[in-house]
Amino acid sequence: MTPVNNEQFSTEQIETILRSVQPQPSAHFYNRMNTAPWVRSSTGKLGIFYQIAPRFLALSFLVILLIIIFSLASPSLGVVAEQILHFFILEPGDILEVKITNPSPESQERYTLSLAEVKSLVNFPIKSLPLFTSAFSFSGARYDIDINAVTLRYTDQSHYLYFTQRPLGSIEEYASIGGSAPTEKVSVRGVVGEYVLGGWIYKSDSDDMPSTITPGSQATLSIFWDSTLPQSILRWEEDGILYELLSRGDEEIGKNDLIKLAESIK
Amino acid sequence: MPSNSFSLNDAEIFGQFYNNTHLIVFRFLYGMAGGSFQEIEDLTAETFFRAWKSRHRFHGSAQAALGWVLQIGRNQLIDIYRRKKVRGEDLILNETLLVHPQSSPEEQVALRQQIQLIWNQLQTLSPNQREMIVLRYILDWPIKQIAEHLNMTDNTVSVTIQRILIRLRDHLPE
Q1: Which helix (H) or strand (E) holds A188?
Q2: Given Cys at both, which of A131, A231, A249, B133 links A199, Cβ 3.0 to 4.6 Å?
Q3: Ramachandran category for residue B157: left, alpha or beta (phi over 0 → left; psi -120 to 50 → alpha)
C-alpha cells in the first residue's frame, strides 16, 4: 500500500488506510497458546506432559524411579533420610541431571492391568477409589517389580489421577523434588502426610536429548522442577504401606480436594 | 435450540474454534485497544482462557460463539480503557503493523504518519463507534453481520459508519 498523496483525506482513503491495519500475533503468542488447556486436553488430558513426544512420556516413570535411585547415591540426602521419614526431599536446586535408559517400544504401554490382575501380583492389600462415588473412573493399573509398587490410574474429564502404593522397605521412602518446591504437612486419614504442588518436567526444546535413541541406549537429561505445573502430589504412610496420590490435568486438583479423594479410598 | 448450534465443551472442537477465530479476536482487540502487541496478545490469550472456563455456559451457533468471545474480550477492554484514561496514556499504533516491504522507505514513513493520524482520531470515538469501525474495516465484516452482532438494523450501522468516517475526515489535521 502506498500513502495517500492528498493533504486532505477522503472517506474512501480513510477506509483504505483502516483496511491496511492487519496485525499478526507474534511467535511468542503462538508458543504460549500451544500449552492452552484445550490443547492439552485434546492431546490426551495429561497437561504439559502430552506436549512431550510420546517416547519421552514413556520415560517419565522411569525418570522418577531413577531420581529416587540417584538420590540414594547422595550421602547428604541419605543422612537426611535417616533422620526422619520425609516423603519429599528437596534437591539443592530446580535442575536435575538424570540418566535414563530408553525403554523398548513394546514397554511403553504401561497401564494394561485390571485391578484383579494387579492384586494377584502382590502380597499386600491394594486400596482403590470407590467406584460410582467419585468423578474418576478406573483406567488401568501397572505393577513395578523393581520397587514392588502398584499404581492405579483413574481419569475424569480433565485429570489423570495416579494412586501408587507399596510396602515400606521396598525402597527408601522419599521422592526428590525441586529446591524451591514448598511442601506442606497435612492431615490425611488420621496421619500426617505431605503435599506438594508442581513436578519435574523435561523441556523438549532443550538440546540435551539426542534426536534419536535406540531401545536400550542411555541418555543424560536435564529435568526442571516446575512449580506451576498443574500437578499435585499427596503422600502418606498407613499400616506399613506408603501411598502416593498424584493428579495431573488442565488445572491442579486443590489440596483439600486431593485429601478428600484420599479419605474416600478403601 | 437452533439446528446449527454446536457445543464448545469438547476440547478438540474448542481448539478448532480457537484456530478459526484467534486472529479475528486478536485484531478486534488490537483495533479496539491499540497499545503494545504484548498487551494485546495477553488480552487475546486471557479472552480465550476465560471462554474455555465458561464454555459450558455457551449455547448457540458458531457465529454466536464468535460474538460471545468478542464480548468477553470487549468486557476486558472496558477496564483497559479506564486505566489508560486515568493514566492519560496515548494508544500508540504498533510500528510493526506498518511495514510494507513493497513500499519504499519514504512511502513507509508517509504511510506510517497517515495511519497514526487516523489512529489518533479513533481514540476520540466512543467504544461503540470504534467497535463498528474495527468490525467493518479491520475485520472486514459486512454491514449485515455487524448489525446482527450489535443488535442493530443494517441501516443504522451503515449510516453510523458513514457519519464516523466523515467525522474522522473532518477532524484530521490538514
Answers
A1: strand A183-188
A2: A231
A3: alpha
A104-122 burial: b if 16+ Cβ within 10 Å, else e: eeeeeebeebeeeebbeeb
From CA A1, how far away is CA B104, in angstroms rounded?
10
Which residue ranges make up each domain of chain A? 49-264
Residues of chain A with C-beta less than 8 angstroms from the C-beta of B96: 23
Q: How many contacts does A have with B, using Cβ atoms within 8 A?
A: 109
- Residue B147 corresponds to which cell in the numbers above? 448489525
| B82-99 tens-digit pLDDT | 655 544 444 444 444 444
Question: Do the bridges between strand A95-101 and strand A183-188 make them parallel or antiparallel, or are there none, so unpaired?
Answer: unpaired
- The backbone torsions φ and ψ at residue B103, rounded to the nearest 5 degrees and listed phi first, read -90, 155
Q: How many CB atoms lie within 10 A of CB A79?
A: 9
Instruction: Parse chain B into domains and list their residue ranges.
Output: 1-92
Q: What does the alpha-carbon distance between residue B98 and residue B161 come to, in Å, rounded to a whole number?
A: 24
Q: What angle do CA B103, B106, B111 make, to 5 degrees?
A: 70
Please name the amino acid found at residue B109.
Answer: V
- Contact state of A37 with B41 under an 8 Å Cβ cutoff: no
Give the largest CA-CA distance in chain A: 90
Q: CATH fold of B1-92, please?
A: Rna Polymerase Sigma Factor; Chain: A (1.10.1740)
CB under 8 Å to A197, separation ≥6 — which residues? Answer: A181, A182, A227, A231, A232, A233, A252, A255
Q: Is the pLDDT of residue A58 over 80?
A: no
C-alpha cell belonging to residue B157: 450501522
Please answer yes or no on whether A23 and B94 come within 8 Å at the CB atom.
yes
Inter-chain CB proximity A22 and B45 less than 8 Å: no
Backbone angles phi, psi at A8, to 5 degrees: -105, 125
Q: How far away is chain A from the Cα of B3, in angstroms, using its nearest Cα?
A: 25
Given a contact cutoff of 8 angstroms between Cβ atoms, the answer to whether A88 and A193 are in contact is no
φ, ψ of residue B49 to 5 degrees: the values are: -65, -40
Q: Identify all chain A residues contacting B133, using CB atoms and an 8 Å cutoff.
A: 18
In this predicted structure, the answer to whether residue A13 has a pLDDT above a threshold of 80 is yes
Beta strand ranges found along chain B (DSSP E):
5-6, 60-61
